[in-house]
């Protein structure tokens, strides 16, 4: 990065002239943002070229992280922080009358992901570059990211997220590196010189064009690559031949169907919808990615047999599981390897992460659909299935039921998770409890057959984005106390523990929290018109809206508090601001109802003078990475209240603790490890354990009606959903009511209500002791180091990918 202020100014002004033909006075804010991005891009580019050169010269093993989602967040500020130039550039810009923050607002937030899974991929990219692991991403350059959420008349409305509208400053189109991906058609096979040759005929070809995004490390020279593939027509932009033949309309149709592949991100999280276009997207980016990896590998190597020594391909959930047959195809059909050699290389190269046990998220494709879209893939999957079933049979002779539950093709469906397990050398869960559930329940047969494949890699988050960048003043306090080592070695954060009872530091931490709360309160006022009390507890529940995440449990507690305050306005509670944000999948009715309920409730409570401002409820629209950067630093309480066993890990829980919020949560996902890290005194744990949940599911015995009849608080709030208490149509929330009573409350909201309410009372009591609370808060910050994605990524590198960090030296 340029460290000299004057040099920076000269280049910046020069960029304005060469890019837009304008001087500072005439240039728009967006022009200035683009010119600043160009300064940074140019600096990064030098290191980027050097990184690639050194990777190639040293022949170090490369990791490719395949993911359908990369939820990146804004890049400009992160580059300034990572490059250590933020203050210099801020001052330099100020001297020429430009406000850096205004420029930062120009950047759009690329929403190329739904939630945890996509954000995890982005954190991993950042950590790999920071730690120096030669790791690259491979995904899709969606024209439209996750929809923009608006709340209109209490309803979620989805608007297209046209994030590329003004161009994306950080991408580099590499047209010369495009590859072809083939769909449909037929496969002809014939024997040539003693081996089978497969030819693909009458297929539809699509051009996959990569757009590379540089991912720079922190204070180092590593710049890795995130390669996002764009689908384009193979035809010229205007096909004269077809125009002359009168077929131009057809060609136009072809182009639009091709364009569709990378047009939209499917807006579902933890839910699978078997759409043909989705399968097309999966094969499109996987085939393109693998082709480009092999092309690069072949520049340096003549034999494919060393592939797994030089390349690791990681698949983020089952979405890229088609990598297994596609790598087999490339190795056999293109490189001429035998089945056995290709299988050995494929399984040694590929590793897989499972992110959920929710049955509705498990991908399976109807055989007919799979076969007609991807005929060669089907042939290979069929053969894989035959072979693995034979080995299962040898291990479990006669146990048809078990083998049916492990077969890659069963009941006329292709099972992608099973394909991923058999075709990889490592299968990991994302938190200890999740991995245990995989091993003991969901994938127990596979675990029994391949015990060594299964391992745990607890998720992590990048503390540089979520603390250093999002909460710079807290970061500065920490650095003053323990030095700056924690930025590169996050485990060192535990040295901050010593300051937990230090009154001076406590006061500083409190001041920063209050300042962050004020900033959030200002945003809330601007967006919703509601004034919130910054001395109240900021209780924050932000994540996708999903029944298993139990926003409803939180809402019932709020309704009960409200009822009690109405009965007794002088009830002694610490004023609370309940803040929600999150998107519901457009077709997920109950989730959309949940948003509506929060919004309706907010309008009722926020204007009720009787309760003397003791409660406020806020729903913030359009939750995104950027909004998260405002919310996490301002939170006092982190709501992590999913039904135990359902949340594989969660990563928001880690962002909250890193910013000093205290968790109220169930023993689910990574909450279990957070609890272990901070100890009983610094977290509020309540509710059923995952074992108890499993027991209910297996042995029955849960009766929601009984709880409804025996707990007056529950009876009241449930009736309030349907008796006209809420200022909306009486029947509006009937489906929600029915899901909890008629359908016997699948996620045990009523069962956990009492325990949750008690934990909230305890929390309220503790918050009243200001210094005690801050002490808890500091414990949380100090123990957050193990939840850094630097730790996670090093575990992947050592135990799965078998690759090492590389120090990129000066050119
Ligand atoms: O992956 C999730 C998230 N919803 O994206 N799952 N998927 N699929 C899990 O539900 C989270 O618990 C997990 O933290 C995240 C990343 O592993």
TrEMBL record:
Give EC number(s), comma-separated: 2.4.1.1
Write out the function statement from the record.
Allosteric enzyme that catalyzes the rate-limiting step in glycogen catabolism, the phosphorolytic cleavage of glycogen to produce glucose-1-phosphate, and plays a central role in maintaining cellular and organismal glucose homeostasis.
UniProt family annotation: Belongs to the glycogen phosphorylase family.
Major site of localization recorded for this protein: cytoplasm
Q: Which PANTHER family match?
A: GLYCOGEN PHOSPHORYLASE, GLYCOGEN PHOSPHORYLASE, LIVER FORM
Q: Which InterPro entries match?
A: Glycg_phsphrylas, Glyco_trans_35, Pyridoxal_P_attach_site
| Protein's recorded name | Alpha-1,4 glucan phosphorylase
Q: What class of enzyme is it?
A: transferase
Catalytic activity, per the record? Answer: [(1->4)-alpha-D-glucosyl](n) + phosphate = [(1->4)-alpha-D-glucosyl](n-1) + alpha-D-glucose 1-phosphate
Under the heading SUPFAM superfamilies, the entry gives: UDP-Glycosyltransferase/glycogen phosphorylase (SSF53756)
Can you say where in the cell this protein is located? Answer: Cytoplasm
Keywords, in A-Z order: Allosteric enzyme, Carbohydrate metabolism, Cytoplasm, Glycosyltransferase, Pyridoxal phosphate, Transferase
